[in-house]
Design a protein that fits this description.
Blueprint (H helix, E strand, L loop, with lengths): L1 H24 L13 E4 L7 E4 L6 E5 L4 E9 L5 E9 L2 E8 L3 E3 L17 E5 L5 E5 L8 E6 L3 E4 L4 E2 L5 E7 L2 E6 L3 E3 L16 E4 L7 E4 L6 E5 L4 E10 L5 E7 L2 E6 L3 E4 L1 H4 L5 H11 L11 E2 L2 E2 L1 H12 L8 H5 L3 E2 L10 E5 L6 E9 L2 E6 L4 E6 L3 H4 L2 E6 L2
Length: about 400
């Protein structure tokens, strides 16, 4: 009898140890019911923090410590059954968007979904009120029943202090400062001021290739609607395909929807100019241009790890396919050996068709290759745009990871 009791105690102890191990190793139940605009934080990491990635399971963009605040933008079920959130985060170099695994995300409690307080929440951006009714109520909190602090007349320039947040009714609110007070105003009635510079006069059409121009180097906002929430800041020279429009704002200005490597959204047409690949790649050699022309055909092809066909490419698989299958050259497959091909080119001497190499993207060391297309742009297969797309080399992400360049044609 004593022997049997001893055995049961041993078995019970082993069972308890297994349960304890599972509790320690498996994250707490993930919040998979968060929606766009919800505030959340990094949690369940045991103090280790998590990595913000360019896509689910993709390139590392930044490290986020335990408790780091997040704003939910979207959700995605990956093929392996894991759930990921697209989030906006305030990093040292400004607001960025990326993906985090939901296992390590906890929603903030409370009926309203805002976490930002004070001027440090975001850089102050001038906006103008366009309610169409003569004035817009500024409220104490981001919901319609909150106390009214003031009525802001139409046409008044005020300051936005934080990104748009959404209440339980789905209404977007911006934290603003007016007459020395800080409160919240409905985002739909706020028209963001375009940055400095002189607007360009250009005619666009759906299907045109556009370039950001006339901003005086400040860039222009990409928005989810005319005067809507900010998706990204497009730098001067950013390239995008026009996919919809025009829509007209209250001032009669045209807005166009463009697809860029920063995302898709609406841009004030006064800061977009029609362009062509020939204009962007002016100055390239005939051989280099043949590589660029071949590459642009595959814009939008999905990113596939180790992919070397039009069904999907990784970065070096893309350059390998173009050089061998399209142009007929003998060219290595691996990024390292591609970097050893051709001859060195200084960054200020780049020509269309030159290969550009980067380090410390999704992994430490040499880790990415792209093709220079001219005008400070490159085309590559990258998790940044979920496949083959155009990137701006002056973007801080690529600028800080630039390694070297080679002329192979």
């Amino acid at each position: 009898m004593e022997t049997m009791l001893t055995r049961w105690r041993v078995l019970y102890g082993l069972f308890a140890a297994i349960l304890l191990s599972a509790t320690l190793l498996i994250p707490a139940a993930a919040d998979t019911n968060l929606v766009a605009g919800d505030s959340a934080r990094v949690a369940y990491t045991g103090g280790d923090g998590i990595v913000l990635r360019a896509e689910p399971g993709g390139e590392a963009l930044a490290y986020l410590a335990e408790g780091y605040p997040l704003i939910i933008q979207d959700g995605y079920w990956a093929g392996d059954g894991s759930y990921w959130y697209s989030v906006s985060v305030d990093l040292d170099w400004g607001w960025s968007t990326g993906w985090v695994l939901s296992d390590y995300v906890a929603g903030d409690a409370g009926g309203s979904t805002f976490v930002y307080e004070g001027d440090a929440a975001a850089s102050e951006v001038p906006i103008v009120v366009n309610s169409g009714t003569g004035g817009l109520n500024m409220r104490a909190n981001p919901w319609s029943s909150a106390a009214v602090l003031a009525s802001i007349p139409d046409g008044t320039w005020i300051d936005v202090l934080a990104p748009t947040v959404w209440d339980d009714a789905g209404i977007g609110w911006s934290q603003v400062r007016y007459a020395g007070m800080v409160g919240y105003a409905a985002s739909d009635y706020l028209g963001y001021k375009i940055f400095g510079g002189t607007p360009v006069s250009s005619e666009l059409w759906i299907g045109a290739l556009s370039v950001v121009s006339g901003t005086g180097g400040d860039g222009v906002y990409l928005r989810n609607d005319v005067y809507g929430a900010v998706v990204a800041l497009l730098p001067e020279g950013a390239v995008g395909d026009v996919i919809d429009g025009p829509l007209w704002d209250v001032d009669g200005a045209a807005w166009w929807m463009v697809s860029t490597d920063y995302g898709s959204g609406w841009v004030h047409g006064g800061y977009l100019a029609a362009t062509t690949w020939a204009e962007l790649t002016a100055g390239g050699s005939g051989a280099g241009m043949s590589l660029v022309n071949a590459a642009t055909v595959y814009t939008g092809t999905p990113y596939v790890w180790a992919g070397v066909t039009p069904n999907g490419f990784d970065c070096s698989g893309f350059t390998y396919y173009l050089m061998t299958s399209i142009l007929g050259y003998d060219f290595p497959r691996e990024t390292l050996y591609q970097m050893e091909s051709g001859y060195y080119v200084a960054s200020d001497q780049l020509q269309p068709g030159d290969l550009i190499f980067f380090q410390n993207t999704y992994t430490w060391g040499l880790s990415h290759v792209g093709i220079y297309v001219g005008n400070g742009q490159m085309i590559s297969a990258s998790g940044e745009h979920y496949g083959v797309g155009i990137s701006n080399l002056n973007d801080p992400y690529w600028l800080s990871r630039y390694l070297t360049a080679r002329r192979v044609l």
